[in-house]
Amino acid sequence: MIIYPAIDIKEGRCVRLLQGRFDDVTVYGDDPVQMAQRWVSSGANWLHIVDLDGARGGTSNNRNIILEIVKKFPVSVQTGGGIRTMEDIEQMVSAGVSRVILGTAAVRNPALVKEALMKYPERIAVGIDAKDGKAAVEGWEQVSEYTAVDFAKRMEQLGCRVIIYTDISTDGTLSGPNLKAMKEMIDSVNMDVIASGGVSSLQDLKNLKSIGAAGAITGKAIYTGALDLSEALKL
């Protein structure tokens, strides 16, 4: 199971949102590049970077920061937020991003997902953010009519191999992942499922591994010190 330290960027700074709410923001640093250095020094092989301004509005100035991190560190980066077109995807891939995450675009524009997967089958992940079991969009502020599992199955049919599944109710709460929802997703599809939301301890990571998660994203836990990243990576 791969551990992905999360770097969420809003207005150029490292932040965490509580349960996806843009009005509940904690700033953890003014320099995302420095934060990336910290997690890479702890032994991370992957970074999970989200452009929150892009996720919410589609455009932002954070992309240059993300590309600087990609260029500067010898690790794999998966990134999402505001990626809405093939041009966006191509810019990311050609800059060296290992995996591009499609979220809102996947719900709104399945044709884009299909085209992206045909061109870059190994480089695309679909981010599914669930609110009460339904797939949410626009930086989590709206809920679509699809259940998260149904939506995942549709993405699998299009050729998707990796999904990042976030349970919004647990995200940023350090309350532990929603293992029931995660297990249901993992059991329902034949894709790699990266779990996101609620990770607060080594035990949470062990639990996610035991239900078959291919990866786990950790954000608030490593920022607050509740989880020691280097210890988790050793495990």
CATH class: Alpha Beta
**β-strand number:** 12
Q: Quick one: biggest sheet?
A: 8 strands, parallel, barrel
> Which percent bin holds the helix content?
25-40%
Which architecture would the CATH scheme give at its second level?
A: Alpha-Beta Barrel
Corresponding CATH superfamily: Aldolase class I
Shape: globular
Q: Which parts are unreliable, with pLDDT below 50 for 5 consecutive residues or more?
A: none
Strand portion: 25-35%
Write up this protein.
- The protein has 235 residues and is an alpha/beta fold.
- Helices cover 38% and strands 31% of the residues.
- The protein is built from eleven helices and twelve strands.
Condensed summary:
With about 240 residues, the chain is an alpha/beta fold.
Which key terms come to mind for this protein?
globular; 11 helices; TIM Barrel; alpha/beta
Q: Helix and strand layout, with pairings?
A:
Elements: E1 2-10, E2 13-18, E3 21-29, H1 32-41, E4 46-51, H2 52-57, H3 63-72, E5 76-80, H4 86-94, E6 99-102, H5 104-108, H6 110-119, E7 124-131, E8 134-137, E9 142-147, H7 148-157, E10 162-167, H8 179-188, E11 192-196, H9 202-210, E12 215-218, H10 220-224, H11 229-234
